[in-house]
Specification:
This protein is mainly beta. The chain is built from one helix and 33 strands. The protein has a five-stranded mixed beta sheet, with no helix packed on it. A four-stranded antiparallel beta sheet has the order 2-33-32-31, with no helix packed on it. A four-stranded antiparallel beta sheet has the order 3-4-5-6, with no helix packed on it.
Length: 411
């Protein structure tokens, strides 16, 4: 295992300040899809939320990171994968930087991962596993690594989909290579810091969580959930969780010091309790709900954990042929309510509301309440999409395989 002395205790916390209202990475400021923004619409406008701008984008499943007035995403067009920077207020292109040739896959073409921003750097991960770091103002490439080539790894069947996590001076991605399921590179130089684990990669993105009484890097691989020491990558615990086609995709969540995981393909979900055992942990399910009768099967969507309840998509059957929208008690695993046959989509949460996009291209806004499903309104805004919305300073950013759109969702 490569170890980086530069990490030490720095990676344990995310100390660099974020601008209020930024959405600097996949799943937002805290990597859980939640925003603390308030003053957002409480009633559905007659014509839906006002459109601020709409501009051409490109093919791909990458979401949008917003930082200090810039919106970043990955698009595929003109035979290449590009890191694109837009003016968040006006939508005009500030710069675009080519990262790799176009990426094609039977499950959809183009890049999958959402960029991550820290200070003057933005990091992106392409469909074939090239990790690149660029300057946020100019788009100039600081460094680039072909992760699979370096660690003799194999591309995931449906493409490399991990959205990079920046933790202090470390950029962390899962690649599923032998001895390098998870790898960390220095943000400033691109130098390898550490690599660990032999699991195959899934399609999930890692998170820094306060669980088991300490800060841990929690990774959902193709066959298990892992807890790692963020400084050196040492594996602290492993919970096997095998899903068909390695389709562990949702990001793990922290709930009262425990870890929530969920997968589609009729796999189910579990809340994991961590018990210290020396420097490591024993892990067991506090509760689990598995198989065709599971209460919550997240396919590619991470559920929103709000006031002890999970709100998310329950995808039934292989590849989620039917999808319900549901609310589950995170303490007990008991289903509270379900909106049947809602359809596939993705979501974030802010101001007591769920901001949902469907594969039909609809924006749906519903209240986050245990009383039952309460929809404020819906409107087709874009074409077919899997990406979740991003929220920054009262603006909601959406994209599909052709355009990027900004909506004003303030009251």
């Amino acid at each position: 295992m490569l170890r980086g002395s530069l990490l030490l205790a720095l990676i344990v916390s995310i100390a660099a300040p974020l601008v209020a209202g930024d959405w600097p990475q996949f799943l937002g400021p805290q990597r859980n899809g939640l925003s603390d923004e308030t003053g957002l619409l409480d009633a559905w406008p007659a014509n839906g939320p006002a459109e601020v701008w709409r501009v051409p984008g490109g093919v791909g499943m990458s979401g949008i990171a917003v930082s200090e007035g810039r919106a970043f995403t990955l698009v595929q067009t003109e035979g290449r994968q590009w890191l694109l920077a837009l003016d968040a207020a006006k939508g005009n292109t500030l710069w675009r930087t080519p990262l790799a040739p176009e990426y094609e896959n039977s499950m959809g073409n183009g890049p999958r991962a959402t960029p991550a921003v820290r200070g003057d750097r933005v990091v992106a991960f392409t469909g074939e596993g090239i990790l690149a770091c660029a300057d946020v103002k100019s788009g100039e490439i600081h460094w680039k690594r072909d992760t699979l080539q370096e660690f003799k790894g194999k591309e995931a069947d449906y493409g490399m989909a991990c959205s990079p996590l920046i933790a202090e001076n470390a950029v962390i991605v899962t690649i599923g290579a032998p001895g390098a399921c998870v790898v960390a590179y220095a943000l400033d130089s691109g130098k390898p810091l550490w690599n660990t684990g032999d699991d195959r990669t899934g399609y999930s993105s890692p998170a820094l969580l306060e669980v088991g009484g300490r800060r841990q890097l929690v990774v959902y691989t193709g066959s298990s959930a892992l807890g790692l020491d963020p400084e050196q990558g040492e594996i602290l615990w492993r919970f096997p969780y095998v899903t068909d086609y390695d389709c562990n995709i949702a990001t793990p969540l922290a709930h009262k010091g425990q870890v929530f995981i969920s997968s589609g393909e009729n796999r189910g979900c579990a809340l994991l309790k961590l018990t210290p055992d020396g420097t490591k942990f024993n892990v067991a399910a506090a509760w689990g709900s598995h198989g065709p009768r599971s209460v919550l099967r997240n396919e590619w969507q991470t559920s929103m954990l709000i006031d002890g309840h999970l709100y998310g998509f329950d995808n039934v059957g292989s590849a989620g042929a039917v999808s319900h929208f549901t609310c589950v008690n995170a303490d007990t695993g008991k289903a509270i309510w379900q909106q049947p046959r809602f359809g596939k989509g993705n979501l974030i949460a802010a101001d007591g509301k769920l901001w949902i996009t469907t594969m039909k291209g609809e924006l749906v806004v519903a209240r986050a309440t245990t009383a039952g499903y309460e929809e404020l309104g819906r409107k087709v805004v874009i074409q077919e999409t899997r990406q979740m919305p991003s929220l920054a300073e009262g603006k909601l950013y959406l994209r599909d395989g052709a355009e990027v759109v900004c909506l004003d969702v303030r009251r």
